[in-house]
Specification:
The protein is α+β, with helices and mostly antiparallel strands and about 280 residues long. The protein has two domains: about 110 residues, Aldehyde ferredoxin oxidoreductase, N-terminal domain (Aldehyde Ferredoxin Oxidoreductase,  A, domain 1, 4-Layer Sandwich), CATH 3.60.9.10; about 140 residues, Aldehyde Ferredoxin Oxidoreductase Protein, subunit A, domain 2 (Orthogonal Bundle). Helices cover about 35% and strands about 15% of the residues. It contains eleven helices and eight strands. Strands 2-1-6-3-4-5 form a six-stranded mixed sheet. The longest helix is centred in the middle third of the chain and has 18 residues. Bound molecules: iron/sulfur cluster (SF4). The site of iron/sulfur cluster (SF4) has 8 residues, from loops.
Length: about 280
């Protein structure tokens, strides 16, 4: 039987944080339904009520970072937000993801391959309207409660991002994938712990839209490979899948692998477990 994206060959779904969804809401939309397939590479440009299908020939074959730069230039707007694919989505890699800007991935079930199968390189959005809410007072009360609760209980996430509970604790709970899930111990686990990231490569954290937690890791260094902060940094899932699951305790190598996955639009978890399985 011919296999078609998504990865399940049927229904697929994936979630993502970041800013794109909010931008879409500000443009006046709750969702978009995309049917059919374009004859040649295209991207969708949504600017409030203005919706255009545009040529993406010169974007095809390029990784997400370059595409983002070219689209911001073409649209003459640095504040556009985009959901986009790199070469993995174009080539229907079964676990291609959809990157949102460059740091947030709708990672699971091969949604990037769905975009690739439609020749859809990106959905670029700019919204300038403020969404209406039914009860401003209530929503502000709710916001305050949520902020207080989260900030009080999740301080370590703000400092260290996901994985901030210590990699060690994931071993105790049997949650850390090690050597293709064969082992229960990874003696050099602290080498890939977010505390080590903070001490050795200067981990920073940033947030998704309006979130007080700021758990999204951002790393940047030049040696032995250049890793750009544009692509964020490895979440717990990447540290586990590309790190311990493949027997890799070299933090910088994991950061580079994470950057490459985000550039190609490949799900870091699936990449890590596939390599682990092959090893
Ligand atoms: S920054 Fe906030 S919204 Fe974004 S992933 Fe972290 S906790 Fe979730």
């Amino acid at each position: 039987m011919e296999q078609n994206p998504p990865l399940t060959n049927g229904f697929g779904e994936s979630e993502v944080g970041g800013f794109w969804g909010v931008e879409l809401k500000k443009a006046g939309y709750d969702d978009i339904v995309i049917t059919g397939k374009a004859k040649k590479p295209i991207y969708l440009w949504i600017h409030n009520e203005q919706v255009e299908i545009r040529d993406a020939n010169k974007l095809w074959g390029k990784e997400t970072g370059e595409v983002q730069q070219l689209l911001k230039k073409e649209l003459n707007d640095k504040q556009v937000r985009m959901a986009l694919i790199g070469q993995a989505g174009e080539n229907l890699v079964r676990y291609a993801c959809i990157m949102h800007d460059l740091r947030n991935a709708a990672g699971r079930t091969g949604m990037g391959a769905v975009m690739g199968s439609k020749n859809l390189k990106a959905v670029v959005v700019r919204g300038t309207k403020r969404p209406e809410v039914a009860d401003n007072k209530k929503i502000n009360e709710f916001r305050k409660i949520m902020n207080d609760v989260y900030l009080k209980n999740l301080e370590h996430f703000s400092l260290l991002g996901t994985g901030g509970d210590r990699m060690e604790s994931f071993i105790w709970t049997g949650n850390l994938p090690i050597h293709n899930f064969r082992d229960g111990e990874f003696p050099t686990r602290n080498n890939i712990d977010p505390r080590t990231m903070r001490k050795t490569i200067g981990l920073k954290t940033e947030g998704c839209y309006a979130c007080p937690i700021h758990c999204k890791k951002v790393v940047e260094f030049k040696e032995p490979w250049e890793v750009s902060s544009n692509y964020g940094g490895p979440e717990y899932e990447a540290l586990g899948a590309l790190g311990s699951n493949c027997g890799v305790d070299d933090l910088k190598a994991v950061c580079k692998a994470n950057e490459l996955c985000n550039g190609y639009s490949m799900d870091v978890i699936s990449v890590g477990v596939t390599i682990g399985f092959a090893m």
